[in-house]
Amino acid sequence: MSVPLSRPVGPGSLLWKYAGDVRSLLPGAAAGLMQLMHPGIGAGVFEHSDFFEAPFDRIHRSVPQIWATILAPDGDARAREIRDLHRGITGADERGRRYHALNPETFWWAHATFTWEIFKAAELFHPAVLNAEDREILYAETVTWYSRYGVSMRPVPPDYATFQSEFWRVCAHDLELTPAAARALDIARYGSDTVTLLPVGGRRADRASRLIAERPLRLITFGCLPPILRTRFDIPWSPFDQARFAALTAANRQGYRMIPTALNHWALRNTLRYIGAQTRPTRYTPAA
User: Fold this and answer.
1) Dist CA 176 CA 167 (whole Å)
2) How many whole angstroms separate alpha carbon 128 and alpha carbon 33?
3) Most CB atoms within 10 A, among 6, 50, 240, 250?
4) How far apart are CA 144 and CA 98, in angstroms?
């Protein structure tokens, strides 16, 4: 595989623009689900976290730090900290297959889902369409983002077209309904009274958030998933669901036209601070 191109990441870059927008988080549940469907990641989460008791804690711990690797002034150092946290995540899954979180293909897949998330947010929730040149520029910037972890670049596709091809190949052939993914799918489908959506706020706040957020979150999660995964894993999705999802994304695109950019960026910073409040209260420092 040829060496992927990379481009600087910082103010003015496309990656900075899209990752710094609160809409970048909307496909995040689908991205997380695709991570859990990877045998190595699913097994690592199953054996090395309290996923089944507190499945959202992983999101609360991880997402602010991962977005900080793009937006924070010390993004490179934060990325290497994330890498080092994964050194001891190793073992064998329920079928006896060995895994290690820093296996190049495994670690790349986690990043690939975040790359996919940025592109999916741009596709669904932004009114302007990325042209072919912008897609290549944005992809090259995600390569720079990945290089910050200081891990093997061997699995990284050299351009956006190759990335798409490899991404769909993994979805079609490598992903599985791991125990962790099956648990996450059950929560997405049916909800759960034993887990919380919010890291802080108490039982009443969480119950209120569940009543308001569960249905649209389910629609966004399943709607953003690649259709091949909905088919492979029998995830219910009807023409009516598709129509509701299209209406929701259209309303989102129109609604955000009326939101000032400064307010949008403020919402992202405070969302990341909030979801990380219980687990890493001081480690996300957004760029000025």
Assistant:
1) 14
2) 27
3) 6
4) 29
Which single residue is written with the structure tokens 């598709």? Answer: 242
Structure tokens, 162 = 């190759």
Question: What is the mean predicted confidence (pLDDT) over 214-226?
Answer: 90
Question: DSSP character for 158?
Answer: S
Helical (H) or strand (E) element with 30? helix 28-36
**Adjacent-strand bridge partners of 100:** 90
Which amino acid is located at 228 in the chain? I
CA distance 129 to 123: 7
- The tokens for 281 are 């209260």
Task: Work out the pLDDT band at 209, boundaries 50, 70, 90.
Answer: very low
Least Cα distance to 21 among 255, 250, 265 occurs for 265
In the chain, where the domains are located:
14-275
Residues 6+ apart with CB under 8 A from 271: 22, 25
What pLDDT is stored for residue 4 in this prediction? 64
Structure tokens, 86: 């994964």
Confirm whether pTM is higher than 0.85: yes
Instruction: Give the CA angle between residues 231, 233, 235 to the nearest 5°.
Output: 70
Separation of alpha carbons 175 and 166, rounded Å:
12
CA neighbor of 256 nearest in space, from 245, 246, 267: 267
